[in-house]
Probable membrane transporter protein (Acrocarpospora phusangensis), 306 residues
Amino acid sequence: MRALILLGLVGFAAQLVDGSLGMAYGVTSTTLLLAVGTNAAAASATVHLAEIGTTLASGLAHWRFGNIDWKVVARIGVPGAIGAFAGATFLSSLTTESAAPIMSMILLTLGLYVLIRFTVYGLPRGNLGKPLRRRFLTPLGLVGGFIDATGGGGWGPVGTPAILASGRIEPRKVIGSIDASEFLVAVAASAGFLVGIGTQNIDYAWVGVLLLGGVIAAPIAAWLVRHVPPRVLGSAVGGVIVLTNVRTLLRSDWVAAPGGVQTFAYVTIAALWVAAIVYSVRAYRQEKAVEAELLGAAPEEETARA
């Protein structure tokens, strides 16, 4: 019973983060399942089965708060589902541990870009409103879906920073669209695992409590992303991407950093991340103060002209 309660809390926390930042549900949940000895394919299958419900609830909540661009959902979700099915069947017979450091380096680069871009400059404005093309979203969906299934998570860390970096839609709609399209990815990945490994080693009680925790958190996360300023949200997303992928690299066979080095790196990154968010909050408040002054000055000018 204690394990089920713990899994429910993990599902809640994971969906709260995923629904507000567009990533980390799969990574968080899969990590816990692997820690208790579940094999990689079964862990990823369990999480993706739970995600069918959590992503549906999250997508509906984001739709309710106007956080979804349905064109983006269609253009990235379908190829994402194809990639996820292929990744699930692939993982059922082969590990992808050697590819993790390479992908982490790519994601770390994107994360640094997003963190610096939003912290220093705020919301990208030059391309805002321009449509995202299929030739960009289709390969992104295929790669993101494949990585999500083989790594037990990754749809958000691949899709969110790439679309955020384009600056073409605001962060809350990036997150809402990624969360909504993840429903297709979760269904396809689950189908792939059922084909590859059947129901072997899948604990449906674990699936249920992960799902319950995620469903409860989904509307809270959707409300949160609707009201958090884009500049602050971008800094928060960037920090998650950087911290997550630095952790993967330091623990990989490529680096195998000692525990002390890992701790120092995590503390340093966390401190810089907090500083970036504080800076973004202050910058956002200054921007709002300037806007308020300009709005206050406009009626005075019109009165003087009259």
In short: The radius of gyration is 20 Å. The chain has a mean pLDDT of 77. The chain has one domain: 2-305.
